[in-house]
Known about the structure:
Blueprint: H1 9-18, H2 28-40, H3 47-65, H4 68-75, E1 78-80, E2 83-85, H5 88-95, H6 111-120, H7 130-140, H8 144-154, E3 161-162, H9 164-176, H10 197-200, E4 208-209, H11 210-232, E5 239-241, H12 242-250, H13 255-260, H14 262-267, E6 274-276, H15 277-287, H16 290-303, H17 308-319, H18 325-335, H19 345-356, H20 368-383
Antiparallel strand pairs: 1-2, 3-4, 5-6
Helix pairs in contact: 2-3, 4-5, 6-11, 8-9, 11-15, 12-18, 16-17, 16-19, 17-18
Amino acid sequence: HGGVLWVSPKMWRRIRFHRLGVMCGVGSAAVAVAIGCANKWTTHCDTTRISDEITTQYENRIRGLSSPEKIFRTFATVWEGQSQFMTPQDFLRSLESHIPKNSSRRNEMSNAESQLVQLIDTNSDGLISFGEYLFLCTMLCLTETNLELSFKTFDRELKGALNREEFEALLHATRMQLPWGQLIRTPESQRSFHAPPLLFGNEGKETVTFDGLKNCVTKLHNAVLRLQFENVDQSGSGTISMREFGDVILSSASPTLKRKFEKRLRQLDQRTERISFEQFTAFHQMLRAYDAIKQSVLLLSQTDCIDQPAIQHASRAIAGIQLEPYVVSVLFELLDDDGNGCLSPDELVSILESRAFWGLKNSRSLGMSELFECSRQCYNRTRK
Length: 384
Protein backbone atom coordinates (compact mmCIF):
# COMPACT_ATOMS: atom_id res chain seq x y z
CA HIS A 1 0.00 0.00 0.00
CA GLY A 2 2.05 2.94 -1.27
CA GLY A 3 5.36 1.52 -0.02
CA VAL A 4 4.09 0.94 3.55
CA LEU A 5 4.79 -2.48 5.04
CA TRP A 6 1.74 -4.00 6.71
CA VAL A 7 2.11 -7.17 8.77
CA SER A 8 -1.00 -9.20 9.55
CA PRO A 9 -1.55 -10.90 12.94
CA LYS A 10 -1.09 -14.24 11.20
CA MET A 11 2.28 -13.12 9.83
CA TRP A 12 3.39 -11.90 13.26
CA ARG A 13 2.55 -15.33 14.67
CA ARG A 14 4.74 -16.86 11.98
CA ILE A 15 7.57 -14.45 12.80
CA ARG A 16 7.33 -15.34 16.51
CA PHE A 17 7.46 -18.99 15.57
CA HIS A 18 10.50 -18.50 13.36
CA ARG A 19 12.34 -16.76 16.20
CA LEU A 20 12.67 -20.21 17.72
CA GLY A 21 14.96 -21.09 14.83
CA VAL A 22 17.40 -18.22 15.30
CA MET A 23 19.95 -20.39 17.15
CA CYS A 24 19.98 -22.72 14.19
CA GLY A 25 20.25 -19.89 11.71
CA VAL A 26 16.74 -20.46 10.35
CA GLY A 27 14.94 -17.27 9.44
CA SER A 28 17.15 -15.06 11.60
CA ALA A 29 17.72 -12.50 8.85
CA ALA A 30 14.00 -12.13 8.23
CA VAL A 31 13.26 -11.82 11.95
CA ALA A 32 15.93 -9.17 12.48
CA VAL A 33 14.80 -7.01 9.57
CA ALA A 34 11.10 -7.43 10.35
CA ILE A 35 11.60 -6.39 13.96
CA GLY A 36 13.75 -3.46 12.87
CA CYS A 37 11.03 -2.42 10.46
CA ALA A 38 8.38 -2.56 13.16
CA ASN A 39 10.53 -0.53 15.55
CA LYS A 40 11.93 2.14 13.18
CA TRP A 41 9.77 2.45 10.07
CA THR A 42 6.28 1.68 11.30
CA THR A 43 4.56 3.79 8.67
CA HIS A 44 7.21 4.41 6.01
CA CYS A 45 9.08 1.20 5.41
CA ASP A 46 10.77 0.73 2.08
CA THR A 47 9.75 -2.81 1.21
CA THR A 48 12.31 -3.12 -1.57
CA ARG A 49 15.14 -2.21 0.77
CA ILE A 50 13.86 -4.65 3.39
CA SER A 51 13.70 -7.41 0.80
CA ASP A 52 17.30 -6.65 -0.24
CA GLU A 53 18.47 -6.69 3.38
CA ILE A 54 16.79 -10.02 4.04
CA THR A 55 18.35 -11.48 0.91
CA THR A 56 21.81 -10.12 1.76
CA GLN A 57 21.72 -11.43 5.32
CA TYR A 58 20.44 -14.81 4.17
CA GLU A 59 23.19 -15.09 1.54
CA ASN A 60 25.83 -14.03 4.08
CA ARG A 61 24.71 -16.86 6.35
CA ILE A 62 24.91 -19.28 3.44
CA ARG A 63 28.46 -18.11 2.63
CA GLY A 64 29.57 -18.20 6.25
CA LEU A 65 27.88 -21.29 7.66
CA SER A 66 26.79 -23.69 4.92
CA SER A 67 28.41 -26.67 3.22
CA PRO A 68 30.05 -26.28 -0.21
CA GLU A 69 27.09 -28.11 -1.78
CA LYS A 70 24.59 -25.64 -0.31
CA ILE A 71 26.71 -22.65 -1.35
CA PHE A 72 27.03 -23.97 -4.89
CA ARG A 73 23.28 -24.62 -5.23
CA THR A 74 22.44 -21.17 -3.86
CA PHE A 75 24.68 -19.13 -6.16
CA ALA A 76 24.83 -21.21 -9.35
CA THR A 77 22.41 -19.68 -11.88
CA VAL A 78 22.80 -21.92 -14.95
CA TRP A 79 20.91 -25.18 -15.46
CA GLU A 80 21.73 -27.65 -18.20
CA GLY A 81 19.36 -30.57 -17.92
CA GLN A 82 19.51 -31.77 -14.32
CA SER A 83 22.95 -30.26 -13.68
CA GLN A 84 23.70 -26.88 -12.15
CA PHE A 85 26.66 -24.68 -13.10
CA MET A 86 28.23 -21.39 -12.06
CA THR A 87 29.31 -18.51 -14.24
CA PRO A 88 32.49 -16.66 -13.15
CA GLN A 89 30.23 -13.97 -11.65
CA ASP A 90 28.31 -16.62 -9.70
CA PHE A 91 31.58 -17.95 -8.32
CA LEU A 92 32.62 -14.50 -7.16
CA ARG A 93 29.21 -13.93 -5.54
CA SER A 94 29.64 -17.18 -3.61
CA LEU A 95 32.74 -15.59 -1.98
CA GLU A 96 31.88 -11.89 -1.83
CA SER A 97 28.72 -10.19 -0.58
CA HIS A 98 29.01 -6.98 -2.61
CA ILE A 99 28.86 -8.55 -6.09
CA PRO A 100 25.56 -7.82 -7.92
CA LYS A 101 23.51 -10.77 -9.11
CA ASN A 102 23.28 -11.46 -12.83
CA SER A 103 20.91 -14.36 -13.38
CA SER A 104 21.15 -14.35 -17.17
CA ARG A 105 24.07 -15.97 -18.97
CA ARG A 106 25.67 -13.41 -21.24
CA ASN A 107 26.77 -14.31 -24.75
CA GLU A 108 30.16 -12.65 -24.26
CA MET A 109 32.39 -12.79 -21.20
CA SER A 110 34.74 -10.06 -20.10
CA ASN A 111 38.49 -10.59 -20.39
CA ALA A 112 38.73 -11.27 -16.65
CA GLU A 113 35.97 -13.88 -16.82
CA SER A 114 37.56 -15.55 -19.84
CA GLN A 115 40.95 -15.72 -18.13
CA LEU A 116 39.47 -17.43 -15.08
CA VAL A 117 37.42 -19.94 -17.07
CA GLN A 118 40.33 -20.86 -19.34
CA LEU A 119 42.42 -21.82 -16.31
CA ILE A 120 39.95 -24.33 -14.85
CA ASP A 121 37.44 -25.21 -17.58
CA THR A 122 38.20 -28.75 -18.73
CA ASN A 123 35.42 -29.12 -21.33
CA SER A 124 35.36 -25.60 -22.84
CA ASP A 125 31.71 -24.94 -21.93
CA GLY A 126 32.51 -21.61 -20.27
CA LEU A 127 30.92 -22.74 -17.01
CA ILE A 128 32.12 -23.91 -13.59
CA SER A 129 30.95 -27.32 -12.39
CA PHE A 130 30.79 -28.32 -8.72
CA GLY A 131 34.08 -30.19 -9.03
CA GLU A 132 35.74 -27.18 -10.64
CA TYR A 133 34.28 -24.97 -7.89
CA LEU A 134 35.90 -27.17 -5.22
CA PHE A 135 39.21 -27.13 -7.09
CA LEU A 136 39.24 -23.35 -7.46
CA CYS A 137 38.33 -22.63 -3.83
CA THR A 138 40.98 -25.05 -2.57
CA MET A 139 43.69 -23.61 -4.82
CA LEU A 140 42.89 -20.08 -3.61
CA CYS A 141 43.57 -21.20 -0.04
CA LEU A 142 47.11 -22.42 -0.74
CA THR A 143 49.45 -19.85 0.79
CA GLU A 144 53.12 -19.88 -0.22
CA THR A 145 54.25 -21.64 2.97
CA ASN A 146 51.39 -24.12 2.86
CA LEU A 147 51.97 -24.84 -0.82
CA GLU A 148 55.66 -25.65 -0.41
CA LEU A 149 55.09 -27.83 2.66
CA SER A 150 52.19 -29.68 1.02
CA PHE A 151 54.13 -30.29 -2.18
CA LYS A 152 57.10 -31.79 -0.32
CA THR A 153 54.80 -33.92 1.83
CA PHE A 154 53.01 -35.56 -1.09
CA ASP A 155 56.09 -35.88 -3.29
CA ARG A 156 56.72 -39.29 -1.72
CA GLU A 157 59.37 -40.40 -4.21
CA LEU A 158 61.24 -37.07 -3.90
CA LYS A 159 61.28 -36.72 -7.68
CA GLY A 160 60.43 -33.00 -7.60
CA ALA A 161 57.04 -33.50 -9.29
CA LEU A 162 53.51 -34.68 -8.48
CA ASN A 163 51.35 -36.96 -10.57
CA ARG A 164 47.60 -36.52 -10.68
CA GLU A 165 46.87 -38.94 -7.81
CA GLU A 166 49.39 -37.23 -5.52
CA PHE A 167 47.99 -33.83 -6.46
CA GLU A 168 44.42 -34.90 -5.68
CA ALA A 169 45.61 -36.18 -2.30
CA LEU A 170 47.20 -32.76 -1.70
CA LEU A 171 43.91 -31.02 -2.55
CA HIS A 172 41.92 -33.34 -0.28
CA ALA A 173 44.29 -32.77 2.66
CA THR A 174 44.14 -28.99 2.12
CA ARG A 175 40.32 -29.00 2.06
CA MET A 176 40.16 -31.02 5.26
CA GLN A 177 42.12 -28.28 7.04
CA LEU A 178 39.41 -25.75 6.19
CA PRO A 179 36.09 -25.60 8.11
CA TRP A 180 34.48 -25.05 4.68
CA GLY A 181 36.01 -28.24 3.30
CA GLN A 182 35.12 -30.34 6.32
CA LEU A 183 31.43 -29.93 5.47
CA ILE A 184 31.66 -31.55 2.01
CA ARG A 185 29.18 -34.44 1.75
CA THR A 186 29.44 -35.35 -1.94
CA PRO A 187 31.51 -38.53 -2.53
CA GLU A 188 34.71 -38.13 -4.53
CA SER A 189 33.30 -40.26 -7.36
CA GLN A 190 30.39 -37.82 -7.91
CA ARG A 191 32.36 -34.57 -8.13
CA SER A 192 33.09 -35.01 -11.85
CA PHE A 193 36.36 -33.08 -11.81
CA HIS A 194 39.24 -33.49 -14.23
CA ALA A 195 42.51 -31.71 -13.54
CA PRO A 196 42.99 -28.78 -15.97
CA PRO A 197 45.48 -29.19 -18.84
CA LEU A 198 47.49 -26.35 -17.30
CA LEU A 199 48.74 -28.86 -14.72
CA PHE A 200 48.74 -32.33 -16.28
CA GLY A 201 48.36 -31.80 -20.01
CA ASN A 202 45.43 -32.70 -22.24
CA GLU A 203 45.76 -36.42 -21.46
CA GLY A 204 46.07 -35.84 -17.72
CA LYS A 205 49.15 -38.07 -17.56
CA GLU A 206 51.92 -35.50 -17.14
CA THR A 207 53.40 -34.44 -13.81
CA VAL A 208 53.60 -30.98 -12.30
CA THR A 209 56.68 -29.47 -10.64
CA PHE A 210 56.58 -27.13 -7.67
CA ASP A 211 57.26 -24.12 -9.88
CA GLY A 212 54.48 -25.22 -12.23
CA LEU A 213 52.01 -25.61 -9.37
CA LYS A 214 53.04 -22.27 -7.86
CA ASN A 215 52.59 -20.62 -11.24
CA CYS A 216 49.10 -22.11 -11.55
CA VAL A 217 48.08 -20.85 -8.09
CA THR A 218 49.43 -17.38 -8.93
CA LYS A 219 47.49 -17.27 -12.21
CA LEU A 220 44.27 -18.31 -10.47
CA HIS A 221 44.75 -15.66 -7.78
CA ASN A 222 45.43 -12.95 -10.33
CA ALA A 223 42.42 -13.95 -12.45
CA VAL A 224 40.04 -13.86 -9.46
CA LEU A 225 41.52 -10.54 -8.24
CA ARG A 226 41.12 -9.01 -11.71
CA LEU A 227 37.50 -10.16 -11.84
CA GLN A 228 36.86 -8.82 -8.35
CA PHE A 229 38.47 -5.47 -9.11
CA GLU A 230 36.47 -5.04 -12.33
CA ASN A 231 33.25 -5.69 -10.43
CA VAL A 232 34.08 -3.03 -7.86
CA ASP A 233 35.35 -0.57 -10.48
CA GLN A 234 31.98 -0.11 -12.18
CA SER A 235 33.06 3.11 -13.90
CA GLY A 236 36.06 1.48 -15.56
CA SER A 237 38.40 4.19 -14.25
CA GLY A 238 41.09 1.70 -13.26
CA THR A 239 40.88 2.74 -9.61
CA ILE A 240 38.55 2.17 -6.66
CA SER A 241 37.73 4.37 -3.69
CA MET A 242 39.01 3.82 -0.16
CA ARG A 243 35.48 2.88 0.90
CA GLU A 244 35.28 0.25 -1.83
CA PHE A 245 38.67 -1.10 -0.79
CA GLY A 246 37.43 -1.28 2.80
CA ASP A 247 34.37 -3.20 1.60
CA VAL A 248 36.66 -5.72 -0.08
CA ILE A 249 38.79 -6.16 3.05
CA LEU A 250 35.72 -6.89 5.17
CA SER A 251 33.87 -8.89 2.51
CA SER A 252 35.26 -12.23 3.74
CA ALA A 253 35.09 -11.43 7.46
CA SER A 254 32.65 -13.10 9.81
CA PRO A 255 29.19 -11.49 10.14
CA THR A 256 30.10 -10.41 13.69
CA LEU A 257 33.15 -8.44 12.55
CA LYS A 258 31.24 -6.95 9.63
CA ARG A 259 28.60 -5.55 11.97
CA LYS A 260 31.26 -4.24 14.36
CA PHE A 261 33.11 -2.26 11.68
CA GLU A 262 30.13 -1.10 9.64
CA LYS A 263 30.10 2.44 11.06
CA ARG A 264 33.85 2.86 10.60
CA LEU A 265 33.49 1.68 7.03
CA ARG A 266 31.24 4.65 6.29
CA GLN A 267 33.94 7.03 7.52
CA LEU A 268 36.10 5.98 4.57
CA ASP A 269 33.68 7.87 2.30
CA GLN A 270 35.52 11.03 3.39
CA ARG A 271 38.87 9.79 2.03
CA THR A 272 39.78 11.04 -1.45
CA GLU A 273 42.68 8.71 -2.29
CA ARG A 274 42.14 6.03 -4.96
CA ILE A 275 43.46 2.46 -5.07
CA SER A 276 44.87 1.22 -8.37
CA PHE A 277 44.77 -2.41 -9.49
CA GLU A 278 48.53 -2.69 -8.90
CA GLN A 279 48.10 -1.56 -5.29
CA PHE A 280 45.05 -3.79 -4.90
CA THR A 281 47.07 -6.77 -6.16
CA ALA A 282 50.10 -5.90 -4.00
CA PHE A 283 47.96 -6.02 -0.84
CA HIS A 284 46.67 -9.48 -1.74
CA GLN A 285 50.13 -10.69 -2.75
CA MET A 286 51.25 -9.79 0.75
CA LEU A 287 48.47 -12.03 2.06
CA ARG A 288 49.87 -14.96 0.08
CA ALA A 289 52.61 -14.98 2.74
CA TYR A 290 49.94 -15.00 5.46
CA ASP A 291 51.59 -17.63 7.70
CA ALA A 292 54.83 -15.66 8.00
CA ILE A 293 53.00 -12.31 8.28
CA LYS A 294 50.86 -13.69 11.11
CA GLN A 295 53.92 -14.90 13.00
CA SER A 296 55.59 -11.52 12.52
CA VAL A 297 52.53 -9.67 13.83
CA LEU A 298 52.32 -11.88 16.92
CA LEU A 299 56.03 -11.43 17.63
CA LEU A 300 55.78 -7.65 17.29
CA SER A 301 52.80 -7.53 19.65
CA GLN A 302 54.96 -8.96 22.44
CA THR A 303 57.47 -6.14 22.40
CA ASP A 304 56.13 -3.23 20.39
CA CYS A 305 53.10 -1.41 19.03
CA ILE A 306 51.61 -2.72 15.79
CA ASP A 307 51.53 0.57 13.91
CA GLN A 308 51.53 1.41 10.21
CA PRO A 309 55.34 1.37 9.77
CA ALA A 310 55.46 -2.05 11.47
CA ILE A 311 52.98 -3.55 8.98
CA GLN A 312 54.78 -1.95 6.04
CA HIS A 313 58.09 -3.35 7.30
CA ALA A 314 56.62 -6.86 7.73
CA SER A 315 55.18 -6.77 4.22
CA ARG A 316 58.46 -5.59 2.68
CA ALA A 317 60.80 -7.83 4.72
CA ILE A 318 58.75 -11.04 4.61
CA ALA A 319 56.66 -10.89 1.43
CA GLY A 320 58.86 -8.52 -0.58
CA ILE A 321 55.85 -6.25 -1.14
CA GLN A 322 56.03 -2.46 -0.78
CA LEU A 323 52.62 -1.24 0.42
CA GLU A 324 51.72 2.42 0.09
CA PRO A 325 51.04 4.15 3.46
CA TYR A 326 47.47 5.11 2.51
CA VAL A 327 46.70 1.48 1.57
CA VAL A 328 47.79 0.29 5.02
CA SER A 329 45.89 3.19 6.63
CA VAL A 330 42.57 1.56 5.65
CA LEU A 331 43.30 -1.22 8.14
CA PHE A 332 43.77 1.37 10.88
CA GLU A 333 40.61 3.26 9.94
CA LEU A 334 38.69 0.01 10.42
CA LEU A 335 40.48 -1.67 13.32
CA ASP A 336 41.97 1.06 15.54
CA ASP A 337 39.44 1.13 18.41
CA ASP A 338 40.89 3.96 20.50
CA GLY A 339 42.65 5.94 17.77
CA ASN A 340 46.10 5.55 19.33
CA GLY A 341 47.66 4.25 16.09
CA CYS A 342 48.13 0.70 17.38
CA LEU A 343 46.12 -2.37 16.38
CA SER A 344 44.94 -5.37 18.36
CA PRO A 345 46.91 -8.39 17.06
CA ASP A 346 43.90 -10.70 17.38
CA GLU A 347 41.57 -8.57 15.26
CA LEU A 348 44.31 -7.79 12.73
CA VAL A 349 45.16 -11.48 12.31
CA SER A 350 41.46 -12.33 12.03
CA ILE A 351 40.88 -9.81 9.23
CA LEU A 352 44.05 -10.79 7.36
CA GLU A 353 43.19 -14.48 7.66
CA SER A 354 39.65 -13.99 6.35
CA ARG A 355 41.02 -12.18 3.27
CA ALA A 356 43.93 -14.60 2.74
CA PHE A 357 41.57 -17.58 2.71
CA TRP A 358 38.53 -15.84 1.17
CA GLY A 359 36.44 -16.55 4.28
CA LEU A 360 36.77 -20.32 3.78
CA LYS A 361 38.81 -20.72 6.97
CA ASN A 362 36.24 -18.91 9.12
CA SER A 363 34.51 -21.09 11.68
CA ARG A 364 31.32 -22.67 10.34
CA SER A 365 29.93 -23.46 13.77
CA LEU A 366 27.02 -21.66 15.42
CA GLY A 367 28.46 -22.47 18.85
CA MET A 368 25.96 -25.12 19.94
CA SER A 369 28.20 -28.06 19.00
CA GLU A 370 31.03 -26.64 21.13
CA LEU A 371 28.61 -26.12 24.02
CA PHE A 372 27.36 -29.72 23.87
CA GLU A 373 30.90 -31.09 23.51
CA CYS A 374 32.11 -29.04 26.49
CA SER A 375 29.14 -30.21 28.57
CA ARG A 376 29.85 -33.82 27.62
CA GLN A 377 33.51 -33.54 28.60
CA CYS A 378 32.66 -31.85 31.90
CA TYR A 379 30.12 -34.56 32.65
CA ASN A 380 32.63 -37.32 31.93
CA ARG A 381 35.23 -35.68 34.17
CA THR A 382 32.83 -35.36 37.08
CA ARG A 383 31.96 -39.06 36.85
CA LYS A 384 35.61 -40.15 37.25
